C-alpha cells in the first residue's frame, strides 16, 4: 500500500490551494472529475478574483502544482479510522493508500427539491439551480420556459440572469421580504426582465409527467415548464460521517462552511495546507 | 396480428409475477404495460413490508396466502437475487383501545398459524428497540415480518420471465377488448394482439379493463397515503414499527433493505393521484417525533401512494382479495391492496394456474426460476451519493432500462441525498449513447 504524507480529497479551489501550501511533503490530490477546478468550471459569469469568469480563474489556479501528485477521474470512496483510504480511478481500478494527514475539500452540495418535500406531483422539469448552471454552461442545454427559480441567494440570482439573457421568461420566488445574495449579484438583474415574488414560496407542484405550474404560498399560480431549486448549499461531509473528529483531519473550503467569495476559500485552503505541513 | 396463448394486462408486481408464473407452463405469454417501464403504478409507492399475516381474518384468502407467502419469502428472494430483510416488527400501543387491537391481532395471528408471535410490555419493547418513546405501553412482536424493495422484486420477476421466453411490451396501452372465436383481440396503442387467455392485473384500472369485455361487480375507489424517506446512515430502528393509536392506525416506520427509513401515514382523501399533501407530511413528522423521539429526521424525499379500495355494487367495501373469473380463461385481480406485495407470487401462481388449466397445458420442464442481480461495478462512479458505477448502469440498460427513471429503479441511482442532481445528466448521456449505438 502506497503511503502519502497528505491526502487531499477534492480538487476545487480549496483543495488546489491546500496542495500548493503543502510544500515539501508527499501529497496526493484526488479529484473525481477529469479536470481540476470544482464549482469554478461551471461558472461562466465574471466576478472571480476581480473580473475573471470561474472557468478562467480555475485555469490560473491550477498551474504551479509541480510538486503534487494529481489523480484525476478519481473518487475517494471511503476513509477509515486507521488512516487508509479507498480510491476508485476510472479505467485504472481501485486502490488503497495510507496517509498521515487528511484534508477534506469536497465542497458543498445543493439542497435538493426532495428535502423541501413540497406538496403535489413529482414531474420532470425540477432541477437544482447549480445542476442547471452546469447543463447550460458546460453542455449547451437550453431550459424549457417559462422558468421559476425558488430562492434568491447568489446561485438563484446568477441563474435568473443566465435564463433571462437567453430570452426565456423567468420568475424569481423568495420567501424573505427582500432578495438575498450579495449586492453585486443582485445588481446583475438590473435592466433584465425578471419577475420577482417576495415573501412567498412554492407550496405545490402540478404536472403528472411534465411540469405544468407551481402554486405559490400567496395563492398565485405560475405556469412554468422548469423549476430551479436554489435554496442553499450544505457541506458535503459524507466521507467523514463515521469518523469522530480525529486530530489528523482538517476541513477547508465549502465543505467546512459555505463561502460566498473565492478569496476566502483560497485563504482557507492555504491555511489548511500550512497547518498539516506544520505538524 | 401476433398471437399468444396468454396475455397479462399491466406490469405491476402482480403482472410481473403472473407472467413469470405463466412461464411454468408450456405456453406463449406476453405482458402489456402502458408505461415506459414495469412497476410504475401502485408498486412504485407502498410500504415495502412482507407481512406476517396477523392482520387478516382467519380463514380468509388473504390470511392463507399471506402466511404461506411470508414463510417462502426468503427462498423466493434468493431465487430472484433480491435483498430481503426479515427484521421483525413491533406493533406499538399506548392506551386501552390499542391494547384491545393488539390482543385481537395476536389471537388472529395464532389462529392463522403464526409462530413466535408475542405480546410484550413497553419496557421489553424498549429493550429491543431503545429509541421507542416512553409512552409505548405494550407491543405485538412478530419476528417473521420483513421488508423487500417492491419494484426490485417485480423487475426481477419480469426479467426472469423474459429469460424464460415471455415477451414484454412496454409503452403499450390496452384500449379495448374484443371477444372472438377461441379468445380475445386486444386492441392496444401499438397494434392488435390475439390471445386465448387473459390475466388482468391493471391495478387501479382493473375494474375498467374487465368491463372492456364483461360486466364487473367490483368497483375501485381510491384514496391516498403520504410517505417520507430519510437519508441512509442515520441510526435507524432495527424493526419495522407500527403505531396503533387510540383513534386507529398511526404511522409505520420501515428500515428498508437499502438503509433508508421509510415512514407512511394513515390514508387520507385523494384530490390528485400520487400528489403529496403538505398537511399529511407535517402530520407524519409530528407522529414520528412522538413515536421515536430521538430519531434524526433527515428527510430526502416525500411521495404519495394511491390505494385501490374494492367496493361491491351495493357500495360496501370488500376486505379480501378480489379475484374474478367472468369467463373461463379470463382472470382479474381487482383492487389488490395490502398485503398484495407479500402475496404477489401466490397471486401470480393462482392466476396462471387458472389459465393453464383452461388452456389444458402441461408444466414446462425447462422453467428456470433463478435470476442474478446486477453485480458488475467498475471504477467509474456516476452516482456519487450511492456509489453506483457506469458499468452497473450500462448493465441495467442492457436488461431493458430505457429512461433515467428505469435505471434508477434497477440500480438505485439518484436515490441518495442529492436525488439525482449530480448524476442525472450523465445517465441521460449514457442512455443517449446506447440509443445511438456509440456506447
Ligand atoms: C454557483 C456559484 C457561484 C459562485 N460565484 C462566485 C463569484 O461570482 N465570485 C466568487 O468569488 N465566488 C463565487 N462562488 C464561491 C466560490 O467560488 C466557491 O464557493 C468555491 O469555488 C468553492 O470551492 P471548494 O474547493 O470549496 O469546492 P468545490 O469547487 O465544490 O470543489 C470540491 C471538489 O471536490 C471534488 N470531490 C468531492 N467529493 C469527492 C470525492 N469523494 N473524491 C474525489 N473528489 C471529490 C468535486 O468534484 C469538486 O471538484 C460561487 C459559488 C457557487 C456555488
Ligand atoms: C399505500 C399502500 C401501501 C402498501 N403497502 C404494502 C405493504 O407494505 N406490503 C404489501 O404486501 N402490500 C402493500 N400494498 C399493496 C401492494 O402495493 C399492491 O397490492 C401491489 O403493489 C399491487 O400491484 P399491482 O400490480 O396490482 O398494481 P400496479 O403496480 O398499479 O400495476 C398495474 C399496472 O397496470 C398498468 N395498466 C393499467 N391499465 C392499463 C392498460 N389499459 N393498458 C396497459 N397497462 C395498464 C399500469 O400502468 C400499472 O403499471 C400497499 C398498497 C398501498 C396502496
Biggest sheet of chain A, open or closed, and with what strands and sense? Answer: 7 strands, mixed
CATH class of the largest domain in chain A: Alpha Beta
- CATH classification, class level of the largest domain in chain B: Alpha Beta
Helix content of chain A: 10-25%
Overall geometry of chain A:
elongated
Largest sheet features of chain B? 8 strands, mixed
Q: What is the structural class of chain A?
A: alpha/beta
Q: What is the CATH third-level topology name of the largest domain in chain B?
A: FAD/NAD(P)-binding domain
The CATH homologous superfamily of the largest domain in chain B is called FAD/NAD(P)-binding domain
Q: What is the chain-wise order of helices and strands of chain A? A: EHEEEHEEEEEHEEHEHEHEEEEEEEH
- Rg of chain A, rounded, reads 20 Å
Helix content of chain B: 25-40%
**Radius of gyration of chain B, taken over Cα atoms and rounded to an integer in Å:** 22 Å
Count of DSSP-assigned helices of chain B: 11
Total domains of chain B: 3
Instruction: Pick out the low-confidence regions of chain B.
Output: none
| Multimerization status | heterodimer
Features:
heterodimer, A: 279 residues, alpha/beta, FAD/NAD(P)-binding domain, 2 domains, seven-stranded mixed beta sheet, 23% helix, B: 439 residues, alpha+beta, Arc Repressor Mutant, subunit A, 3 domains, eight-stranded mixed beta sheet, 11 helices, 21 strands, 30% helix, globular, binds flavin-adenine dinucleotide
Amino acid at each position: 500500500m502506497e503511503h502519502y504524507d497528505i491526502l487531499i480529497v477534492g480538487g476545487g479551489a480549496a483543495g488546489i490551494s491546500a496542495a500548493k501550501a503543502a510544500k515539501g511533503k508527499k501529497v496526493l490530490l484526488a479529484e473525481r472529475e477529469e479536470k481540476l477546478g470544482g464549482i469554478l468550471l461551471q461558472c461562466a459569469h465574471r466576478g472571480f478574483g476581480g473580473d475573471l469568469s470561474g472557468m478562467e480563474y480555475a485555469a490560473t489556479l491550477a498551474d504551479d502544482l509541480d510538486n503534487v501528485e494529481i489523480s484525476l477521474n478519481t473518487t475517494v470512496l471511503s476513509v477509515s479510522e486507521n488512516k487508509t483510504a479507498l480510491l476508485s480511478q476510472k479505467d485504472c481500478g481501485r486502490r488503497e493508500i495510507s496517509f498521515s494527514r487528511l484534508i477534506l475539500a469536497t465542497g458543498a452540495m445543493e439542497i435538493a427539491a426532495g428535502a423541501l418535500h413540497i406538496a403535489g406531483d413529482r414531474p420532470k422539469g425540477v432541477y437544482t439551480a447549480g445542476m442547471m448552471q452546469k447543463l447550460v454552461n458546460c453542455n449547451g442545454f437550453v431550459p424549457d420556459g417559462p422558468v421559476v427559480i425558488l430562492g434568491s441567494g447568489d446561485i438563484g440570482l446568477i441563474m435568473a440572469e443566465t435564463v433571462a439573457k437567453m430570452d426565456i421568461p423567468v420568475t424569481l420566488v423568495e420567501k424573505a421580504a427582500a432578495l438575498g445574495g450579495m449586492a453585486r449579484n443582485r445588481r446583475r438583474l438590473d435592466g433584465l426582465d425578471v419577475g420577482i415574488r417576495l415573501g412567498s414560496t412554492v407550496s405545490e407542484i402540478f404536472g403528472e409527467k411534465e411540469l405544468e405550474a407551481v402554486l405559490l404560498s400567496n395563492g398565485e399560480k405560475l405556469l412554468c415548464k422548469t423549476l430551479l431549486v436554489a435554496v442553499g448549499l450544505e457541506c458535503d461531509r459524507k466521507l467523514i460521517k463515521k469518523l469522530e473528529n480525529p486530530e489528523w483531519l482538517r476541513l477547508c473550503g465549502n465543505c467546512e462552511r459555505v463561502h460566498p467569495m473565492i478569496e476566502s476559500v483560497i485563504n482557507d485552503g492555504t491555511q489548511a495546507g500550512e497547518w498539516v505541513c506544520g505538524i | 396480428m401476433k398471437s399468444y396463448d396468454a396475455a397479462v394486462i399491466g406490469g405491476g408486481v402482480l403482472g410481473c409475477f403472473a407472467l413469470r408464473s405463466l412461464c411454468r407452463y408450456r405456453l406463449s405469454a406476453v405482458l402489456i404495460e402502458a408505461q415506459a417501464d414495469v412497476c410504475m403504478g401502485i408498486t412504485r409507492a407502498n410500504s415495502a413490508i412482507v407481512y406476517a399475516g396477523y392482520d387478516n381474518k382467519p380463514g380468509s384468502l388473504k390470511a392463507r396466502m399471506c402466511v404461506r407467502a411470508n414463510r417462502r419469502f426468503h427462498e423466493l428472494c434468493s431465487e430472484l437475487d433480491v435483498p430481503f430483510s426479515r427484521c421483525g416488527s413491533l406493533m406499538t400501543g399506548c392506551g386501552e383501545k390499542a391494547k384491545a387491537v393488539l390482543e385481537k391481532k395476536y389471537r388472529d395471528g395464532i389462529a392463522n398459524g403464526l409462530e413466535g408471535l408475542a405480546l410484550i410490555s413497553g419496557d421489553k419493547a424498549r429493550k429491543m428497540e431503545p429509541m421507542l418513546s416512553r409512552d409505548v405501553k405494550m407491543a405485538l412482536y412478530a419476528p417473521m415480518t420483513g421488508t423487500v424493495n417492491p419494484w426490485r422484486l417485480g423487475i426481477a420477476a419480469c426479467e426472469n420471465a423474459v429469460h424464460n421466453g415471455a415477451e414484454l411490451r412496454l409503452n403499450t396501452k390496452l384500449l379495448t377488448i374484443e371477444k372472438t372465436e377461441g379468445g380475445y383481440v386486444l386492441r392496444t396503442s401499438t397494434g392488435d394482439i390475439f390471445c386465448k387467455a387473459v390475466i388482468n392485473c391493471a391495478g387501479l384500472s382493473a375494474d375498467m379493463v374487465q368491463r372492456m369485455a364483461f360486466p364487473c361487480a367490483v368497483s375501485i375507489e381510491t384514496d391516498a397515503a403520504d410517505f417520507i424517506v430519510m437519508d441512509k446512515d442515520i441510526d435507524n430502528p432495527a424493526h419495522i414499527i407500527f403505531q396503533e393509536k387510540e383513534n386507529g392506525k398511526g404511522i409505520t416506520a420501515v428500515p428498508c433493505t437499502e438503509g433508508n427509513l421509510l415512514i407512511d401515514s394513515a390514508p387520507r382523501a385523494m384530490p390528485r393521484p400520487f400528489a403529496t399533501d403538505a398537511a399529511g407530511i407535517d402530520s407524519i413528522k409530528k407522529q414520528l417525533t412522538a413515536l421515536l423521539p430521538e430519531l434524526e429526521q433527515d428527510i430526502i424525499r416525500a411521495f404519495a401512494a394511491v390505494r385501490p379500495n374494492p367496493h361491491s355494487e351495493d357500495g360496501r367495501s370488500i376486505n379480501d382479495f378480489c379475484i374474478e373469473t367472468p369467463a373461463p380463461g379470463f382472470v382479474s385481480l381487482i383492487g389488490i391492496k395490502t398485503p398484495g406485495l407479500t402475496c404477489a407470487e401466490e397471486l401470480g401462481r393462482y392466476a396462471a394456474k387458472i389459465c393453464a388449466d383452461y388452456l389444458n397445458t402441461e408444466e414446462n420442464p425447462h422453467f428456470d426460476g433463478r435470476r442474478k442481480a446486477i453485480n458488475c461495478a467498475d471504477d467509474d462512479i456516476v452516482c456519487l451519493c450511492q456509489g453506483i458505477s457506469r458499468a452497473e448502469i450500462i448493465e441495467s440498460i442492457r436488461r431493458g432500462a430505457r429512461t433515467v427513471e428505469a435505471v434508477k429503479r434497477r440500480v438505485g441511482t439518484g436515490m441518495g441525498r442529492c436525488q439525482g442532481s449530480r448524476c442525472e445528466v450523465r445517465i441521460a448521456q449514457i442512455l443517449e449513447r446506447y440509443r445511438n449505438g456509440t456506447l
